[in-house]
């Protein structure tokens, strides 16, 4: 009997949460049920998802920015089908594959400051690990400096430069020689650099966890100080790159010319995991410094044909459909509409972002009844009100969002760059309605929150 993937999916679709609870991440499967996210999605297209009942959801996470082009983009999909039909030899290893060279060429064209040497891997964390290794090999220095609240990955190597204590706890000791500095504190950075042993200073130009945006002069000054003290300046563009913030690279907002750039997520068009670490030839060659060291840093699947084809197609779509410009235009409309709501609802403390990266931060209300409810939620678990908003957006408006980080009352929107005025209006309307309902302590926002508080306290 012939095996059919379609038949397997149709026969077992209803088992997905049971299977995850039994064989994969039991805690995550349970959380999905608690917050009402345990949907069985059966189709994704453009900016939307559909569940088994035919209900449509606006995807404002985009796979944490994997789906900048939307889901099932026809150009990338066709590239995958074309490649499979060609039966090209893949992963020969003793080879210099054409598609990897073509994608490296295309990426180099888009880089500031003459970055023209590329290393391909599989994930954002892989790209960051590569950047750190290149920095140490090039400078022959041991230390790495990063920003507080940073998120550069969850591998053991990248945990050393992860600013979230909740991610680091339980995995110590971490990679030594990594130290954090506060964002916007130039003096603290220079104090570290002055020691002369710092290989690299790594930053997300805008921090994804919390949507924290640096002061206008901070990153240019940080870059200048790195040059002064012989430290490499790394921009982690894994989530913020590929048009997310209205520029191809987020660092372009400040006119930066980093020594190393990392990319991943939407580079694969939503089909294939891929990452790229792009640097100058001199820095790259310091790692592969002799013929016998030509494979001293390597990864098995890093130049696979499917990933390279997806990357080439994705870059073409970004250009052909002017999605970077669209991100800037739609993001400005979204930010303007949400900022107007801040003037009407006291619990909206801040609205911030660039392009189609937008964060909304909440604060305690003044009204005694609402403040009591807020205090009870915060006592159970910090940042719980933001989770109430996320749950309400899913339940009442069929919008998939997330809290922007552990312990913060911030929600984050990362919609596909293909969204238009219809989706922007829908988002603003949904937040308006949720916040209006949250002004009533007996409304559904707080009522559903009581169940979440009970779960938090039961732990």
In words, what does this structure look like?
The protein has 459 residues and is of the alpha/beta class. It has two domains: 74-320, Type I PLP-dependent aspartate aminotransferase-like (Major domain) (Aspartate Aminotransferase, domain 2, 3-Layer(aba) Sandwich), CATH 3.40.640.10; 323-458, Alpha-Beta Complex (Aspartate Aminotransferase, domain 1). The chain is 44% helix and 15% strand. The chain is built from 18 helices and 15 strands. It has a seven-stranded mixed β-sheet with strand order 4-10-9-8-7-5-6, sandwiched between helices. A hairpin with a 4-residue loop joins strand 2 (48-51) and strand 3. Helix 6 runs parallel beside helix 13 (305-320), helix 14 (323-342) runs parallel beside helix 17 and helix 16 crosses helix 18 (444-458). The chain is globular. The N and C termini lie far apart (48 Å). The mean pLDDT is 95.
- Biggest β-sheet: count, sense, barrel? 7 strands, mixed
| Count of helical stretches | 18
The CATH class label of the largest domain is Alpha Beta
CATH architecture of the largest domain: 3-Layer(aba) Sandwich
**Helix content range of the residues, please?**
40-55%
Q: What is the average per-residue confidence, as pLDDT, rounded to a whole number?
A: 95
Structural class: alpha/beta
Strand order of the largest sheet: 4-10-9-8-7-5-6
Give the percentage of residues in beta strands: 5-15%
Unreliable residue stretches: none
CATH topology of the largest domain: Aspartate Aminotransferase, domain 2
Rg over alpha carbons: 23 Å
The CATH homologous superfamily of the largest domain is named Type I PLP-dependent aspartate aminotransferase-like (Major domain)
Number of strands: 15
Number of domains: 2
Measured between the Cα atoms of the first and last residue, the distance is: 48 Å
Q: Give the overall shape.
A: globular
């Amino acid at each position: 009997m012939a095996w059919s993937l379609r038949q397997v999916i149709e026969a077992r679709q209803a088992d997905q949460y049971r299977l995850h609870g039994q064989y994969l991440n039991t805690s995550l499967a349970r959380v999905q049920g608690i917050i009402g996210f345990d949907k069985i999605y059966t189709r994704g297209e453009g900016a939307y998802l559909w569940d088994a009942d035919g209900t449509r959801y606006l995807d404002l996470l985009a796979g944490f920015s994997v789906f900048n082009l939307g889901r099932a983009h026809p150009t990338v999909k066709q590239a995958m089908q074309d490649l499979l039909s060609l039966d090209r030899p893949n992963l020969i290893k003793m080879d210099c594959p054409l598609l990897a060279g073509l994608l490296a060429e295309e990426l180099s064209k888009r880089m500031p400051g003459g970055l023209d040497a590329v290393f391909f891997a599989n994930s954002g964390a892989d790209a960051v690990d590569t950047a750190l290794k290149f920095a140490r090999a090039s400078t022959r220095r041991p230390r790495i400096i990063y920003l507080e609240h940073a998120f550069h990955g969850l591998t053991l190597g990248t945990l050393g430069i992860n600013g979230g204590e909740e991610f680091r706890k339980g995995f110590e000791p971490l990679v030594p020689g990594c130290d954090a500095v506060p964002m916007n504190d130039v003096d603290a950075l220079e104090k570290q650099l002055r020691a002369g042993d710092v290989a690299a200073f790594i930053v997300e130009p805008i921090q994804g966890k919390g949507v924290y945006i640096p002061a206008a002069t901070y990153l240019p000054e940080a870059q200048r100080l790195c040059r002064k003290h012989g430290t490499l300046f790394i921009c982690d563009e894994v989530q913020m790159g590929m048009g997310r913030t209205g520029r191809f690279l987020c660092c372009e907002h400040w006119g930066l010319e980093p020594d190393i750039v990392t990319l991943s997520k939407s580079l694969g068009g939503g089909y294939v995991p891929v990452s790229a670490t792009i640097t100058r030839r001199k820095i790259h060659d310091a790692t592969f410094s002799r013929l016998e060291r030509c494979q001293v840093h390597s990864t098995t699947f890093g130049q696979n044909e499917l990933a390279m084809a997806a990357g080439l197609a994705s870059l073409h779509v970004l250009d052909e459909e002017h999605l970077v410009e669209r991100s800037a235009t739609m993001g400005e409309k979204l930010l303007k509409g949400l900022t107007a709501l801040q003037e009407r609802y006291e619990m909206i403390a801040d609205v911030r972002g660039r392009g189609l990266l937008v964060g909304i931060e909440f604060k305690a209300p003044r009204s005694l009844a609402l403040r009591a409810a807020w205090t009870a939620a915060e006592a159970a678990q910090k940042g719980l009100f933001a989770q109430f908003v996320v749950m309400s957006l899913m339940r009442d408006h069929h919008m998939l969002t997330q809290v922007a980080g552990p312990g913060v009352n911030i929600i984050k929107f990362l919609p596909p760059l293909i969204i238009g005025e219809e989706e922007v209006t829908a988002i603003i309307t949904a937040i308006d309605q949720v916040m209006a309902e949250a002004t009533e302590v007996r409304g559904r926002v707080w009522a559903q929150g009581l169940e979440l508080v009970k779960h938090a306290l039961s732990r």
